[in-house]
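Re: the request from the purification team.
They wanted to know what the chain is likely to look like in 3D before they choose a buffer screen. I agreed to run a prediction and write the result into the notebook, where they can find it.
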Amino acid sequence: MEWIEEWPLGRGRSNASGSVADLLTGGPYPSLSPPEVPPLAIVNELLGERGGAGMNGGRQWRPFVLSAGEYSDLVNELVASRGFTIIEVPPWVASGEDWHVWLMERRRGVPAEHQRQLNQRARDLAKQFEDARADPDTPADQLAKMYLEAKRADQDAAHFRDPWITVARFSKHRRAWRWLRDAIFRQKAAELAGDMTAAAAAAAEANLVRERLRPTLPDDQWPSDWEDWPEYPPPEQRLLNGPG
């Protein structure tokens, strides 16, 4: 296989080559990590994309898929030299999203069924909003409400696993970051509804939270009044989605 190595911070790129196992298990953001071997459909979904990169670099490749025989060769290499193990995967794991949800339950104890329900709700509400936006007869206030509901559902799905995977020193930062994003979403919703007063208030709240988020480095001193911040989301909106 041949692919492109993206260097950190956009500093350049270089050509690279190796086996499919090399491609999927190497780089700053490996597509696969041991010990679980994913099914063929999951592997082909990964390979059918173009790869990706972040601040630490990444990999780009021409999309392709494996045959059953090629997949068998990949599995043999993963097991023989990469620390992977063949295990039984539930039949409901049929996509990359399902695979990630299942791994989070298997490795961290994040309830898979609740996560799947939140993911599906987020997708459904996003589609309803897009359908409504495509209809010129949708009232502006209804569109704004649907936008905010869809964005909050997406955040519910994205952050459900936080209590199981976020280290203590980042938990408050992630809570405040979600608060900031909600203020930004409320600003956009108000703009969609034509309510410039509410939009300005939400923008001011977002700026306040940005200031309160500083410093952002984990070992820096947090603001002395951090514990006085209101919880987000408010108790009446919050899902009981944490482990206690």
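For the purification team: Residues 2-89 form one domain.
Please add any questions underneath this entry.
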